[in-house]
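Quick one: structure tokens for this chain, please?
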Amino acid sequence: MVKKYLLFDNDGVLVETEPYYFKANVKALAEFGLELEFDVYMEIMARGGTAWEIAQKQGISKRDIDKKRQLRDVYYQEFIQSQEIEIDGVVDVLKELSKKYKMGIVTTSRRVDFDLVHQKREIVSYMDFTLCVEEYPRAKPHPDPYLAGMKKFNALKEECLVIEDSQRGLTSAVNAGIECVVVKNEFTKTHDFSKADYRIDTLHSLESLLDSL
């Protein structure tokens, strides 16, 4: 069946924010005297866990963890407002795709962070909707996010294509029964993408892939 609807992940696909979320977690956990190693973080990220598991294992109270999480969120917002998070050519690609397809963003980001990222960017202007973590029951890798996106379009699974860059996001698409293309990203290159239906090196290749389906 011809694809009509595109469901984009946000972080790592449309903007390069993932390294800064990692750094924000590293900075916050360091204030507990804890080290968050990259390989450990990638394993946690792949299965949809939380970096605060490290603090929980050390017996740190939920109250103290919650306070530190709030600081993590502050650090992350500082990063995304001060660092370069653009991915070259994304807006041009979306502009062309919008002529043929309906598009939406389905992200595990908090709405406040998502809006901060996109307030001065054109990306969302090409989208029919955006869904953040507060707007569906369970986050990726559960199927809920992409099922919610499909419902927004009132579409069949066969009419949709998910665009992801992480194992957690791919698993969410697989669990929802929606085909998924994984865009290569250096940050998530150690993840297992064996269940991906398609692989592309950059978002620029998405239109030609769609034309071939």
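The chain has nine helices and six strands.
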